[in-house]
Design a protein that fits this description.
CATH architecture of the largest domain: 2-Layer Sandwich
Strand content: 15-25%
Largest sheet: 8 strands, mixed
Number of domains: 2
Number of helices: 14
Structural class: alpha+beta
Radius of gyration: 22 Å
CATH class of the largest domain: Alpha Beta
Shape: globular
């Protein structure tokens, strides 16, 4: 029997605690594809302990959400070159819903010469963070996850419905911050807490949001890559907790017609790497030029990266006036109707909350896109529009109205392509265009109901 002591000794503290007095059976070697789906291999722990890397074809990054293939291969064509995937052991964490003792480990993707694969989402975020680091800056983020707990839906032709609560009644809408509403799906919440504890994840808060069965989980602020890893892990964790209680968890941006959508709000600040000082605040506590430049970068460039933060046709159903989601990129202090909100905080915690991002976005790409826009604003010294006073929904709708429109804007974003990586931009645009055009080929029930006999 193989000795795994050297492997378990290298695991993070939470993983070691989970395996205390237990034998590790299996390791899931995973990586996020462009939609954010976990791809990889499950291997016996003894084999994982002997290997330094494993292979997967680069074509996993050419696959759309429907399982089709985008025309994104390079000059050599679709030959499915093997990538080298190396484990980042700092990400090792339990998979507590499995029947045996299993760990998950996120891997990084390299080509055969050792260069990072440019269209791997984790590498895209690492590239953007590296640009901040080169300027002596350290970005900090805190994501908020919104999602719905819904009844099991086994037929795509049927509408999605709220889950049944402990009372035997469907989860109620318009009950934001209600503790009674949270108690209705308490067993799912209990499992989420248990799974999070086993994985060593620290949840800041769990609250009931405004939709029927809609929940929000907030994380403590920290390193962008580490927080993206947590959101990536947490999507799977929440799905598994829901399945255990005979319901589904969905991260669709707009799963139900008459309910609000689900966002992944991203709180962002930037520190001076050497001192840890928040560069958004001066010594007297006033907002700095860098703070305003970051805001201006968001206003200027976010319209060009909307496919990275609203990646599917359904994403654009969330942007509805007075629908608890922004319709423009105005900014304001403590104003939840704006796309860019500056929460009330002490000067050392001054930050910008991006409220445009949907929960259906790949967390690595969403955080990378938002930070990239702020970065360009800072290095270009941009100036934002004046802060909005009043309700942003009463101002012009300036966000793209469809995926195809936003893809066209993304394809023309030369400055952002240089920050995010030109090859990534090429591959991502090809996949999003394929998805948008494949949706247009589908005849919807609305068309059959209203057009079949009336036009």
């Amino acid at each position: 029997m193989a000795d795994l002591s050297h492997l378990t000794a290298s695991l993070p503290e939470a993983a070691q605690a989970y395996l205390e007095n237990r034998r590790l059976d299996e390791v899931e070697c995973i990586i996020a594809d462009l939609p954010g789906i976990a791809r990889g291999k499950a291997v016996p722990a003894s084999k994982f302990a002997r290997q330094d890397y494993f292979h997967l074809p680069d074509s996993i990054f050419y696959q759309t959400i429907t399982g089709d293939w985008g025309e994104a291969a390079g000059e050599e064509g679709f030959i499915e070159r093997d990538m080298i995937l190396r484990p980042d052991m700092s990400t090792a964490t339990a998979a507590p819903w499995t029947a045996d003792w299993t760990m998950q480990v996120i891997h990084d993707a390299f080509d055969r010469e050792g260069a990072p694969i440019p269209f791997s989402p984790r590498n895209v975020l690492r590239r953007v963070v590296g640009m901040y680091r080169a300027r002596g800056w350290k970005p900090v983020v805190a994501p908020e996850m919104e999602f719905f707990l819904v009844a099991r839906n086994l037929d795509p032709a049927h509408e999605i419905k709220p889950m049944m609560g402990r009372s035997g009644r469907p989860a109620a809408a318009r009950q934001a911050y209600s503790m009674t509403a949270v108690d209705e799906f308490g067993p799912v919440i209990d499992d989420i807490y248990d799974f999070a504890e086993a994985q060593g994840f620290e949840i800041d808060t769990i609250i009931q949001e405004g939709g029927a069965g809609q929940v929000e989980i907030n994380f403590r602020h920290g390193n962008p890559l580490a927080l993206a890893d947590q959101v990536f892990f947490f999507k799977r964790t929440i799905r598994e907790a829901a399945l255990r209680q005979n319901c589904f968890a969905t991260f669709m941006a707009k799963p139900m017609q008459h309910e609000p959508g689900s966002a992944m709000h991203i709180h962002q600040s930037v520190l001076e790497a050497a001192s840890g000082r928040n560069v958004f605040s001066a010594q007297d506590g006033a907002a700095t030029e860098l703070f305003h430049a970051f805001l201006a970068g968001q206003q200027t460039y976010l319209p060009q990266v909307i496919p990275m933060i609203a990646p599917y046709v359904n994403s654009y159903r969330r942007y509805v006036p007075h629908g608890a989601a922004p319709i423009n990129l105005e900014w304001g202090t403590d104003n939840r109707t704006t796309g860019l909100r500056v929460p009330i905080s002490a000067p050392n915690a001054r930050r910008v909350e991006n409220r445009v991002v949907g929960m259906d976005a790949n967390p690595y790409l969403a955080i990378a896109a938002s930070l990239a826009c702020g970065y360009l604003g800072m290095i270009e010294g941009l100036i934002p529009r004046p802060a909005l006073q009043g309700v942003a929904y009463e101002h012009a709708y300036t966000l793209p109205r469809s995926l195809l429109q936003s893809v066209e804007d993304f394809e023309a974003a030369d400055k952002l392509a240089e920050v995010l990586g030109p090859r990534f931009a090429q591959v991502f645009a090809a996949l999003k265009r394929h998805e948008a055009e494949s949706f247009l080929a589908v005849i919807s029930p609305w068309e059959r109901e209203h057009l079949l006999l009336n036009v």
